[in-house]
Amino acid sequence: MRWDHLFDDLAGQLEHELRAEEIDLQHEEERLRLGRLELRDRIAALHRGPQAMRRLSLRLRTGERVVLTPMTIGRDWVAGDLDDRPHHQAIVPLPAVESLMLDHEQVAVSLERGPEAPQLAARLGLAFLLRDLCRRRAPLTVDTDAGPASGTIDRVGRDHLDLAVHELEAPRRASAVEHIRIIPLSSVLLVRL
Hints:
By secondary structure, this protein is an alpha+beta fold. It has three domains: 1-36; 38-122, SH3 type barrels, CATH 2.30.30; 125-193, SH3 type barrels. Helix content is 33%, strand content 32%. A ten-stranded antiparallel β-sheet has the order 5-1-2-3-4-10-6-7-8-9. Strand 2 (65-73) and strand 3 form a beta hairpin. The radius of gyration is 25 Å and the shape is elongated. It starts with a helix and ends with a strand. 20% of the residues are buried.
């Protein structure tokens, strides 16, 4: 009888230690996962979450606060509806984001693990998106570190864009263009459509 108790006791201790080791491994895996998270991943998790969690409050490098409801998330940008201007959209390059301002619930949702459906937009960079706006000849405003400029994008290089500066209401005509402003993509804070 005493041997049975001894073996039961040893089996219980072994099972307890195995469970403790498994819990430690799970905690370590979670720490590693959190260490690999990028800002884009956190925004994508909010986008996948409940509708109430999708509204983002962003502070740009200049200190300007932008409230955006993301519609599409690219490799290095997020596009969505601006809350302060109904029916207006904006593109925010992720390097222009100084911080996200989230409530406690949004923080928890942003840390959730979830399968992200492979989307074409997730592989497209900012330059590709700007080239599409260039092809469409869309009038827009580009906010930069030096201030906003309005007009039409004439061309997009690898690390810069050429903006034909003119009044937004006027179509892009040579006579309406004040000048061409060459803007490094690293200076772009926000593109308002």
